[in-house]
Amino acid sequence: MADAYEPLFHGLETHGWAVQDQLLPAPVVMQLYLASRYAWRQGFFHEAQIGSPDHPIRNLSIRGDTIHWLDQNNAIQGCVAFQRWADNLQLLMNRHFFLGLRRSEFHFARYDKGLGYRQHMDQHRGQPHRKISLVLYLNRTWHQPDGGELCLYAPGDKTREIRRILPQFGRVVLFRSDLIPHAVLPCNRPRWSLTGWFRTDSLLLDTIVASPASNDDPFPGATPSGAAA
Ligand code: OGA
Ligand code: MN
User: Helix (H) and strand (E) counts for the chain?
Assistant: First the structure.
């Protein structure tokens, strides 16, 4: 295992969470910082929702961020380098923990002044595929009075706070999506991050399983090259 990851993996193994600064190459963090602001200016962000996929609702008092999913096919510069880094991290975690991670998904998140995210778990009931959560903070300067700390609570005891983490530039937090209750405290200025999950499902299998009895083509767009469309 690469030495740089040793403290991170040790934390993940013994506590279910870990935080580390300067894990990513500085130019990659800078590119993501620029990409997040670019995507915001382009109007790519949308309001995050809670509830089931069938009944999404927006409730600012529970979850206040606006988000923009990174699209691996239409990558903004900077996201490509990050995705390569995340793929390597996935490989290392699989080797180290035998997690069977198969893919990852990430979005930029922006909380406006005064907003946060109430205590929650990232792994939702009936959806066991999110295994490891990752947050990378993209705020150039951030101090205590700016608020917006990530609050971690004890596994199995959501009343016991175990750590507050300031969302400082380049800082990475990893935690078990099924284990760690957490919250984002209201921030006093806009708060930016890249947040995502390493998962054990595969997109292709999902597509097939989601429509087992239908006549829908489970491989849309997968027409063999040269064949008449
Ligand atoms: C989330 C989340 C934490 C953070 O988006 O699910 O908990 O510090 N984010 O932004
Ligand atoms: Mn969360």
Answer: 4, 11
For helices 79-97 and 26-41, the axis angle rounded to 10 degrees is: 120
- In this prediction, residue 135 carries a pLDDT of 98
pLDDT along the chain (229 residues), means of 10: 86 97 95 94 91 85 93 72 95 95 96 97 88 98 98 97 98 97 98 97 68 45 38
Distance 94 CA to ligand 2 centre (A): 22
Residue whose Cα lies nearest atom 8 of ligand 1: it is: 150
CA of 2 to the centre of ligand 1 (A): 26
Write phi, then psi, for 46 (nearest 5 degrees): -135, 160
Distance CA 79, CA 186 (A): 27
Question: Residue 182 C-alpha to ligand 2 middle, in angstroms?
Answer: 6
For residue 49, the model assigns a pLDDT of 86
Residue ranges of domains in the chain, CATH in brackets: 2-44+57-218 (2.60.120.620)
Distances (CA, A) of 5 to 20, 23, 69, 87, 206: 9, 8, 26, 14, 31
Ligand 1, CB within 6 Å, residue ranges: 109, 117, 122, 135, 150, 167, 182, 184, 193, 195
pLDDT at residue number 225: 39
**Which listed ligand is nearest to 150 at the C-alpha?**
1
What pTM does this model have? Answer: 0.87
